[in-house]
Write a structure and sequence with these properties.
The protein has 189 residues and is α/β, with parallel strands linked by helices. It has one domain: Rossmann fold, CATH 3.40.50. The protein has a three-stranded parallel β-sheet. The chain has a two-stranded antiparallel sheet with strand order 1-2. Strand 3, helix 4 and strand 4 form a beta-alpha-beta unit. Helix 1 runs parallel beside helix 6 and helix 3 packs parallel to helix 4. It starts with a helix and ends in a 20-residue tail after the last helix. The relative contact order is 0.16.
Length: 189
């Protein structure tokens, strides 16, 4: 996964438009702390530095989704207060799809995520990694989750960078054509 995140950094930082229009934040679920926590607060693409993310421990995915949704809303408020226009934010959920949250936390996260997506507050993309419970990930979004083929993280992050670049060139409310995810997804699911 580290090579993939390094690729994301390289690809974003080689795109002049993305450099000035894309911001990233990363919420980790599990890992050494066995909790959901902000690993990277909102950072401009120009300042983004790749770092290792290692899967380990529990997966408090519901709590992580709730933190991410709060971060998205706060960022939008900050942009509005500064008079900066923006396109609909994206939330990428990359997971094995097996939340270890209590059932009530997961249920609340699913409801919050679906409501945010329905009210066009955020665009949610769920990507399952090897062994993923796609049915569980599907609960988060109206869009079906995609399955990563093997360990094609590099290809996934090249696609993400190209997609973010396309979105950064769009105007608020404009429909955009995203690149095909075929280089990284498992099309046999």
């Amino acid at each position: 996964m580290m090579a993939g995140i390094s690729t994301l950094q390289t690809e974003l930082q080689s795109d002049d438009t993305a450099l000035v229009r894309v911001q990233l934040a990363i919420v980790s679920v599990g890992g050494p702390s066995n909790d959901a926590e902000i690993m990277l607060d909102w950072t401009d693409a120009t300042d983004f530095q790749a770092f290792p993310i290692r899967p380990d421990g529990t997966t408090p995915l519901g709590k992580g989704v709730q933190i991410a949704l709060q971060m998205v809303e706060q960022a939008k408020q900050n942009l509005r207060a500064a008079g900066v226009s923006y396109t609909r934010p994206w939330m990428m959920v990359i997971s094995d799809g097996e939340p270890t949250d209590p059932a009530d936390v997961w249920s609340a996260a699913v409801q919050e995520c679906r409501a945010a997506e329905a009210s066009k507050k955020v665009e949610v993309f769920c990507i399952g990694v090897e062994g993923a419970n796609l049915a569980k990930l599907a609960e988060l979004s109206t869009k079906p989750p995609q399955m990563l083929s093997g360990t094609k993280f590099r290809e996934l992050f090249v696609w993400l960078s190209a997609s973010l670049s396309a979105a950064s060139r769009s105007r608020p409310g404009e429909n955009i054509q995203l690149p095909s995810p075929d280089p990284w997804r498992n099309v046999g699911i």
